[in-house]
Amino acid sequence: MTLSSSDTSAVSRPALSPWRRTLLALAALLGGAGVILGAVAAHKAGAEGLVTASSFLLFHATAIFALNAAPGRRRLLAAAQLAMLIGVILFAGTLTLHILGGIHLQPSPAPWGGTLMILGWVLAAIGIIAA
What we know:
Blueprint: H1 18-43, H2 50-69, H3 74-101, H4 110-129
Helix pairs in contact: 1-2, 1-3, 2-3, 3-4
């Protein structure tokens, strides 16, 4: 069976809001950044700390995608996704600037990023349980 680009009867998907489309596109970019940082860490001497940044980017990109399909209270799940997105950008971004650029931000945004990621996971749990 061959599906043409105009044949949507085989797969039924709800339309994505502009907010969700943007969030998922950003999550995809986080995943790509995670792969890039993992490759840099594997090939650049002294960049082992990028493995942490890479892992956090990949895990949270996947979580943001998964939460988009998770059953639960949509607003809480959206808040969880946003907290994860901002948190991982702050955390991984701070590590990357430090390791690759020698830039030391004071005060460091990394702890705020970590806190937001934790908050995101807690909000996800609450959003799923409260459904």
